[in-house]
Amino acid sequence: MKKSSSEKRRHVVAWVNKAEWDQVLDYLYSKDPALQRFALQRVSAWRGRYAHNTPVAVDCTADLVRCQVLDRSGQLNGDDLVLLYGAALVRFVNLITERRTGAWLPLQT
């Protein structure tokens, strides 16, 4: 049985629809920490639904926004913030290089 052209273009994604995607995008870049926290909760739900297949840009943006929210809250001292931002940036580099090469390869010794 041949599939129609509309069935071939379907992709499974973690968000419910384009409106949810747009809302989370707007809220992540909002200046309001409450909206940013809401967006981070949505991204966490997406990660739960779609495991390790969420887009790299979504993962990394959420990590950096989480750092900003915690930074603005004043709950962490300077050393903790340095570690948090550093971990988010290292994770960004690792995700980009890992997904770019297709798979993680151990170093040859």
UniProtKB/TrEMBL annotation:
One of its GO terms (cellular component) is preribosome, large subunit precursor. GO terms for molecular function: endonuclease activity. It holds the Pfam family Las1. GO terms for biological process: maturation of 5.8S rRNA; maturation of LSU-rRNA. InterPro entries: Las1. It comes from the Eukaryota. This is Ribosomal biogenesis protein LAS1L-like. It comes from Poecilia reticulata (Guppy).
